[in-house]
Fold Dirigent protein.
Amino acid sequence: MSSKNIAPIILVFFLCISGSSAIPGGKKIKYHKPCKELVLYFHDIVYNGKNADNATSAIVGAPEGANLTILAAHYHFGNMVVFDDPITLDNNLHSPPVGRAQGLYFYDSKAEFTAWLAFSFVLNSTDHQGTINFVGADPLMHKTRDISVVGGTGDFFMARGIATIMTDAFEGEVYFRLRVDIKLYECW
Amino acid sequence: MSSKNIAPIILVFFLCISGSSAIPGGKKIKYHKPCKELVLYFHDIVYNGKNADNATSAIVGAPEGANLTILAAHYHFGNMVVFDDPITLDNNLHSPPVGRAQGLYFYDSKAEFTAWLAFSFVLNSTDHQGTINFVGADPLMHKTRDISVVGGTGDFFMARGIATIMTDAFEGEVYFRLRVDIKLYECW
Amino acid sequence: MSSKNIAPIILVFFLCISGSSAIPGGKKIKYHKPCKELVLYFHDIVYNGKNADNATSAIVGAPEGANLTILAAHYHFGNMVVFDDPITLDNNLHSPPVGRAQGLYFYDSKAEFTAWLAFSFVLNSTDHQGTINFVGADPLMHKTRDISVVGGTGDFFMARGIATIMTDAFEGEVYFRLRVDIKLYECW
């Protein structure tokens, strides 16, 4: 095989190996590189019966004995919250929003603070138009938690990846801010 | 390299490039072609306290102050609805169903009509046997909304894609019909 | 083309064809082989007002007229349950847990026992560290039901696949045990 012949084969080989697909047989490739990265913040203000004007989320489900304006005892186990939270580029609640985080979380343990998330980022700015869909477990007390990016639309058409969530701030049981580091490993 | 040698390389190149995988580095390929397309309708009749015989869905969560037979004020913010809706091939509620749309939606904004969806199409007809799983944001007032197909089983084994949703009809707060244009970009 | 030249091309061809990606044009490949398989059990004990110490799940949503300690009439239609269930390697509730199944299920039919699931396996053992995220329809009365693995983190980074669920045992309306056969077809 002459050196003239090797070039296209190497190229093809590279395209197959280093793409985002799995390798047959399930061998892991370590050190994947994201094809797109975003860092965004979102801000959740839970309705507590007194903050209707500012609240961005509301308790809509609760276990027996609990109510819909006070988070339940036992690590809020069974509280389900629907939210429509502003997304910002930095950690300032009053920065101009670039979209909305819309979805659901619920606290799912009686023994520790842990939640489960299913939501979308609905982005609508000069930089990004489209949605990113997330699901996953959120063990709140860990400094970082990884959830799945299961799909996307618009600029994020068919995206998949991992989002690393950090609690950037919280104030009692009313406000919290999450930092979300999105790393997409499948881009179309 | 002789012309005899070029053919298989071109073929391999085509298989890698034009497949549904991401291209390393995240370069976008525009004009993807779906590997499977379906257009289906589903019909939702919300329980309002009087229509138990016909209702296909029920409010199961509501914010403080709301109840489970009347959709809440403020754009129904916080209402969560569980559904088991007939799927039809055309826009007629009384056409023979080809399956059931089963899942959840909830209204997640105090400022506009917008919802979030997580559901499955459970198809059981001569044409299709299997399930398709969807999640995504549904800003109702937009003519079309894109959500993610995050997986499938049976005939839709491992499918991924985009579903474009249109409100095909609605009657007050009791009935609505959605047209769902499913475009799969990953077929196995 | 000499035989020396054929080998790398065949290899590349194999890598492209037999990978986990879709083939352009949507042709199905039958008989896929999983890249990873796991069989796990999880155990759900629903709170019924009397078993607070043992319960691992709680009803947090119910249709009009129902309550949060007794599963609703009409096939539990509209009951939504949040859970944090132990995962074991065998069918014994008292085996050492290898993680927690955390998420949500709800009953979504008035006409038969059927549910919808969205949850994570949060695995934390010497064998596995990471999460697996699932969504899908669960028609309880079928012997086996297939749902989607839509993503994963840690050891299950970016995983996709199918989980086949079987009701391994149940006791009245308080306890059930599910066997979950996880077959991943995309491994990274």
